[in-house]
Amino acid sequence: MKLFYCLIILVLFQNCSFDKKSGIWKNEKAIPDVDKDYLKELETLSSSNKLFDKIIPVDRNFKFKLTSVVDNFDWNDIFFKKNNNLQNFKYNDLNRILFKSKKLSRHSTSNFIMFEDGNVILSDFIGNIIVFSINQKKIITKFNFYKKKHKKINKLLNFIVENNTIYVSDNLGYLYALDYRNNKILWAKNYKVPFRSNLKLFKNKLIASNLNNSLFFFDKNNGNNLKLIPTEETIVKNQFKNNLSLDEKTLFFLNTYGSLYSIDNESMRINWFINLNQSLDLNPSNLFLGHPIINENESIIVSSNQFTYIVNKLNGSIKYKKNFSSQIKPIMLNNYLFLITKNNLLIAMDIQKGEIIYSTDINQSVAEYLNIKKKKVKFKNLMISNNKILIFLENSYVIKFSIMGNIEQVYKLPTKINSFPIFINSSMVFLNKKNKVSIID
Q: H or E element: which one contains 287?
């Protein structure tokens, strides 16, 4: 009993001493000297909860070192490449219609289209996979996997293309492979739980994730499960879909709980994982919002509903955490990140230094360029072409910025855009509002 009282007295004494005598809360001079470089390193990871809203003019002497302009001919992944990143595309930029197809579907279609061997590939919400030949100017495949009992259910198809084969997962739990040249199912599986991610291919593996945040490696030749990796499940589902991004050695997986995983492509073993969910509520029902991740060079870019993270690919350490979030999927060229924030700022950032090169108000730039009152625009997509930044709007207008962040042009596309645009053979390809393939040069 005496020992118990002694411990209480000791604790009270220490508490009183900590507050009144140490001076650590009231007197900054009482803080011992700390290595300034260490403090500087901590500052790069800290960020205010206040949304970034600064206008930062570009240094006129700054010079971007961009990748070369690429003339692209295929689009086999909905996010273009395995790493989900875009390139600096070649584009004729004449804004004239080269070709317009007949109407391909009378139903609502996916935002994503793909392109392989001269064929545009798309899907609609009743489950049709449609392959339209540009050369033949006709539909060469229209395939629907589903039976009458699924007729009234909207089908959300996730797909990827390789060598004339379309691999599909859906919100009903089906996984199948379609030879679209011969209009033939190669294999089909029912895994019961809805799939909820984009798809990736690595050698003989088809990679996907389901509604429960379980990650699967399948054999792409028959659909058999090679490995299942369970991750944190969220009770309440939101609009964010699990996202996959690949490099030559590693799969990066961001789930709806906000956890980012690094997994070896060959062994299918976890290298590391971190959680980026910033909510103080750690309940599994807590929602995480974000955009598809991209990986390039040594970094992974994660834009959540609050922050943008630059993560080291090798060990998962957070290089930088910035108090802005992207409205749409950002782009990384070389070591520069380009994004549009929630408060409509166009930002260019140096990834290596963690510094903002410039920040400009898009709405204000448009108002000044057109000499009109400032209004809010609605963004659809962000791309880079001919060293120019192209911002596509929901109303089919395009805002062109120089790579230095100066507005150069605002123009309307010759037909209303519906799907996300892709660049093929120096032209822009998309579905218009009537579900017609449109090619703009």
A: none
Within its chain, how far is the Cα of 306 from the centroid? 15
Q: At which residue do the structure tokens 């579905």 appear?
A: 431
CB neighbour list of residue 241: distance below 8 Å, 6 or more residues apart: 196, 197, 198, 256
Query: Which DSSP category does 439 fall into?
Result: E
> What count of other Cβ atoms lies within 10 Å of the Cβ of residue 271?
17
Q: What is the pLDDT of residues 293-333, one digit of tens each?
A: 999 999 999 998 889 999 999 999 999 999 999 999 999 99
- For residues 104 and 128, the answer to whether their CB atoms sit within 8 Å is no
Asked if residues 403 and 387 have their Cβ atoms less than 8 Å apart, the reply is yes
pTM recorded for the entire structure: 0.87
Other C-beta atoms closer than 10 Å to the C-beta of 75 total 21
Name the CA dihedral angle for 40, 44, 49, 52, rounded to a multiple of 10 degrees: 110
% of residues, the chain, pLDDT over 90: 80
**Residue 52, SS3?**
coil
pLDDT tens-digit series, residues 224-260? 999 999 999 877 666 788 999 999 999 999 999 999 9
- Assign a CATH topology to domain 43-440: Methylamine Dehydrogenase; Chain H (2.130.10)
Buried-exposed string 61-74: b where 16+ CB fall within 10 A, e elsewhere: eeebeeeeeeebeb
- Beta strand residue intervals within 66-173, DSSP E: 88-89, 97-103, 114-116, 119-123, 128-133, 138-144, 158-162, 165-169
Six-digit token pair at 310?
């630059």
**Could you tell me if 294 and 300 are in contact, meaning their C-beta atoms sit under 8 angstroms apart?**
yes
Taken as a whole, the chain contains a residue count of: 441
Residues 6+ apart with CB under 8 A from 39: none
Query: Helix, strand, or coil here: 401?
Result: strand
- Greater confidence (46 vs 263) lies with 263
> Hey, what's the torsion of the CAs at 268, 273, 278, 281, to 10 degrees?
80
- Say how far apart CA 441 and CA 439 lie, in whole Å: 7
Tell me how far CA of residue 421 lies from CA of 114, 372, 391, 406, 418, in angstroms: 10, 28, 11, 23, 9
